[in-house]
Amino acid sequence: MNNLSYLIKQGIRSVWKNRFMSFASLCIMTVSLILVGMSAIVMLDCGIILDNVSDKNEISVYLSDDADIKHIGEVLKSNTLTEKVDFVSAEEGLKKMIEQYSEQKELFQNLPYNPVPATYMVTINDLDKISTAVQQFKAIDGVYKVNAPMDFAGFIKDLRTTFTIIGIVLIVALGTVSVIIISNTTRLSVFSRRKEIAIMRIVGATNSFIKTPFFVEGLFIGLLSGLLSWFVTKLVYENLYNLFTQNLGMWNALGMGDILQFSEIGWYVLAACCSAGALLGAIGTVLSTGKYLKV
């Protein structure tokens, strides 16, 4: 226990002894974690925005004149892909059309019959399965036509995929840079203490005894980077959130009214930043000592 306490103290003291390189590592890791953290939160917000936009997407199910409206409604509601079903009668549909084309009211005067069919507006719970939903709805007796914004669904799907790829690439790239920086810092620290290490080896110190302070050093820098990155991320995100929510009406219309508040995820972000920082610091140290520390 005394040995472990000694090694931990030595690792923390080493941060101060090599303060220039430690500070450089701290800055690089902090910036990397800030970018990764902000990217992750923005990815979550983009997912929420895309989900909100998707919720506004509806499939129009047009009914035949002799259709059993009640039965079709029950079939649509019982479908596993259905989230919401709204019925629009032929009269309501015509009224909405007249309001929509109010500048051409003369087109709707003296109509011999109502050309607008009774319609069910169906919102599905998985936009990726919109093609399946369309095929299932078309197969229902009494349905003569189904309209769905297939291009819009494809666009949303491609957008999600693009955001996911960008997020993964960014996280991997920044994580790799952080590991390399920590590894190089540890390598310099090992080189500067080569005489001390040689003496320790002569008196019989084990490999783990020599390596542990470097491991603690990387871990400590990583934890500090995590705390700093969390604090900066909190300040930046809260300011951006306040900026975006000044006009809630406009953002709600765009599907952005439900973006995350930092208070909802603050503890998760703190845990993620500190864990990621400690992990990156530890990995960088292990790689460096394994390659450059000849013990």
TrEMBL record:
Locations listed in the record: Cell membrane
Lipid bilayer topology: Multi-pass membrane protein
TM region positions: 20-44, 163-185, 214-232, 265-287
Cellular component, GO, one term: plasma membrane
Every ABC3 transporter permease C-terminal domain range: 169-289
Protein keywords: Cell cycle, Cell division, Cell membrane, Membrane, Transmembrane, Transmembrane helix
Source organism, top-level taxon: Bacteria
Domain FtsX extracellular: 58-146
Presence of keyword tRNA-binding: no
One annotated GO biological process: cell division
UniProt cross-references to Gene3D superfamilies, sorted A to Z: 3.30.70.3040
InterPro entries: ABC3_permease_C (IPR003838), FtsX (IPR004513), FtsX_ECD (IPR040690), FtsX_firmicutes-type (IPR058204)
Family named by the database record: Belongs to the ABC-4 integral membrane protein family. FtsX subfamily.
Protein role: Part of the ABC transporter FtsEX involved in asymmetric cellular division facilitating the initiation of sporulation.
Record-given protein name: Cell division protein FtsX
